[in-house]
Q: What sequence folds into this?
């Protein structure tokens, strides 16, 4: 555990930022993303983007799931939004 040295802290009179923080910083990106498309990102960001996308899918109740890879053929990461497949009912003879 790393301890905080009180001597390194300072007191300031900085004002509180106006307005609320954006709930989902990827909201604009998710609005444009359609099932079957993916987000291209750096490999180290794949986990965070996939987690945010899964939360978006759950919050919006989308009939989709999320898949990811950390190294695609170009070395970048990918996070896909994929539609859930419709399962056909088997006919009973």
A:
């Amino acid at each position: 555990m790393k301890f905080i040295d009180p001597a390194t802290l300072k007191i300031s009179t900085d004002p509180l930022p106006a307005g609320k923080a954006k709930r989902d910083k990827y909201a604009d990106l998710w609005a444009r993303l359609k099932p079957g498309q993916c987000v291209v990102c750096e490999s180290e960001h794949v986990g965070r983007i996939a987690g945010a996308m899964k939360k978006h899918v759950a919050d919006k109740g989308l009939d989709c799931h999320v898949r990811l890879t950390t190294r695609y053929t170009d070395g970048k990461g990918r996070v896909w939004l994929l539609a859930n497949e419709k399962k056909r009912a088997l006919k009973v003879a």
